[in-house]
Amino acid sequence: MKPRAPFFTIVLLGALLLLAQASRAHAPFDCSIRVVVHADSAEVILTVGRALGADFLKPAGISPGQLSAGHLFALSPGFATNLFAAAADGKILLPREADVITDGLEFQFHFEYALPPAKSLGLETKFIPALNPPRTAPLVLTDENGNIFASAILSPAKTGTEFALPEKLFPPDRPPDRSENFEKPLAPPVVSAVEKTAPSFAQFLQLGVGHILNIGAFDHLLFLVALLLGCRKLKPMLLVITGFTLAHSLTLGLAALNLVSLSPHIVEPAIAASIIFVAAENFRRTEKSWPRYALTCGFGLIHGFGFARALRESGLAGTGMEIARPLLAFNLGVEIGQLAVAALLLPLLLLLERWPWFARFGARVLSALVIVLAAYWVWQRVTSSGD
User: Fold this and answer.
1) DSSP code of residue 82
2) What is the distance between the alpha carbons of residues 219 and 212, in angstroms, rounded to a whole number?
3) Strand, coil or helix: 66
4) Among the listed residues 19, 107, 33, 21, the one whose alpha carbon sits nearest the alpha carbon of residue 63
């Protein structure tokens, strides 16, 4: 009975560390960037979470409370220079419009630039260091119909890129633009060489692993922990992991292909609620495994929607059958990350089960902490949805 104090100290410390990350959503990126090119203009659309959006608005002296959900809030065009530097054929573009809108869960910053006839469009980000590890951001170039021309994954090692523009955007008889906005030389160059290819299979694989290990899909991992706490032997643990994997892989594929769809206002609170349900079920300590496998698969389907939304909304995976290869790589990366975490948890839980106190009370104590944290997530996501 003497080891209880150290045990509780470790448990409470771990709970506090998790609570520090509780506001982070179920997504592989802190942000996404979409560039929409028109015949005479370019739009840069930056989507970020609530915390990051609030940080971005601070230089303008704007608090999230000043923004009404669903309504555009005009920003000074110069605000764009806090986040981006844009250039056409190496000449700086100055923004002419800027605004922001929020739905309570995310902020969407919108900047519009006049675009002269050009062969390439470059974009340099200034906020990558402010992102959470591994500090990656998807960037996609499309036309006004949503056709993807090119995409890239930005990081601290590559904070900007330059895309080749389709010639059909610029009619041959269109006179060149002589606006002073395009006469200022870009020095030093802030973009890399022209890119026409999408991220590789390896990059999507790394993205999936990073979603679990680096960025911290804490709700996903906590669900896995809650599942494993209800198992006392290795075989049930492995079957639980397999069932969860198959289930979320199924909905990941269906949702990413747009065959099924659920609003994030439903999915995000449902994911947190699934953690509460599984953790509460641990108090029964039943040895009947099959009901638990069914429970695992059912909630795994819900988690798949979270992964799919994250991948699809980044725009990196393309549309239709183009998504098959990125989908496979991303899902494989998710599974590698999940198995890596399980490989650490399984021996630890099996070892702790040999401790009489833990075998009797440990799973319930940890499950109670999981319930408290997940309940906070439910409250946070439901109230955010209603903003």
Assistant:
1) G
2) 10
3) helix
4) 107
